[in-house]
Amino acid sequence: MATSLGQLLDALADTARTTDDSAAARADAGTALGHLGRALAHLRRDGVSPFPGDGREQQVAALAAACTELGVRAPATESALTRLAAAAADTVGVLYDHTTVTSRWAVATAVAETVTPLAEVVAHRLPAGPATQWHTEVERQAALVQQAAALQPPTRADAAILDRPVPGPAVPASVDPARVVPDAVGVLLQATVRASDPPSVTEVLAYTIAAQTLSSAAERLGSADAPPAGQTTAADAWRAVRAALRPYDDGSRRFHEHTPSGVAAAGRLHAVLRSAPSDPTTWTASLRASVTSAAQHLPTLATQLLYRTVRSWADKGSLIAYARDVPPREDRVAAYLRGYQPGGLVRVDATDLQPVAGALHNARLLTLAAADRAADPGARATAGFPRRAWAANRAVLDDPQTPVALSVAIQQAHQQLQAARAQRSGPSRAR
Question: Is residue 171 part of a domain?
Fold first, then answer.
C-alpha cells in the first residue's frame, strides 16, 4: 500500500516514544539511527542549501556522520524501529526526482526531529565509551539542525514533499479504494516527474481521465460548497486539457501490446471510483478518506504535467500536428493550405503548445479549490490525511491574487470546452 516519508517518520517517532526500556529496544533504536544517518548523508550529497558551504549543509553532514557512527556501534537487529527507519531512508532516495534544494532541507529538518526520540531510547543505561560520545554528538547536532530550521524554516510548499505518496507493489485485482486510490496517485506522480523521460501523449490522455474522475469524486464530497450549477468545475478543466491535446500526436496514438504502469494505474483509479455510488453520503469511510487525501495531490500532478511533460515536448520538438489545428502563423501558410494531408503536418513548439499549458494551469487552480472544499475539518483530523500537502494548497488559495486567477481559469476552461465542441460539430480531421 502507498505510504509517504512523513507517515514513516511520524510512525518511527511515535514507536520510539512508546518503546520499552530494554537492551533490545536500545539496540533497535541505535541501528535505526544508522539508517537515518544514511538518509541525511543522501540529502547532504544532493544538497540542502542553494549556497555552497552554507551552515545548514555542514550541520546536516555532521548529524549524518554522528548517526552513522552511533549506528555502527549498535548490536545488529531488525525490529520495528530499524524497519521503519530503513524504509524512510529508502524513501528519501525514491523521492530524489521529486525534490528540490529547498524541499530537501524540509526533509532534513523532519529527519532531525525524528532523531531526538530515538536518541532518548539509546540514552538509557548507555555505558561510558565511544558510543556515549557519539550519542552526545547526535543529540547536539540534532539540536543544531532544529535550531537552524527555526531560523530558516521550510515553506509549506517545500514541506509538502513529506506527504508525497510512494506506491507499493501493484495489486491489479484489488477493489479496495483505500489501497487502489493512493497507490494509483503515487504511480501517476512518479510517472510525470521525470523530465528526461516524459510520458507520451497517449499516456497523458489516460492520466487526465483519471484526474477528471478523481476531481469529480472530490467535488461530490465538497458539494455543500460546490460551484453553482452550470459553472465550470475541476473535472471540466481536466476535460479541457484533453480537448487541448486533441490536435497533437507523437506516434503513440495507436494500439499498444503492453500497458505502461502509469496508464494501468490510471485505469485502476478510474474504475474503482466510477464503480462507487453517485451519492457520497453512502460511501464507506475508507473511500471518503482516500478520495479526500488523493485530491490534495492533483495540483501537483497538473504542475508536473506542465513543467515536466509539456515543456519537454516543446524543447525536444517531439510532437506534430496539422497546421489547421494549431494557432496560425505566417510561416505555415503553405502547410495550412494543404489541409489534412501529409504536407499539412508541422512540428510544434512552445508557442503551439500554449493552449495545453493554459489548460493545465486552469486545471491546477480549479483542482486546488475542489481539493480544499473536500477537506473538511473532520477529514483533516484523520491520521492518514496529507496535512502538509493541504497546507501548501491552502497557502496558494490564501494568496490575494488567487480568486481573480481562479475566475479567469473558470472562464478559459469553459471557452476551451466550447471551442472543442464547435470543432467536433464542424469539418475537421477525425481523431
Answer: no
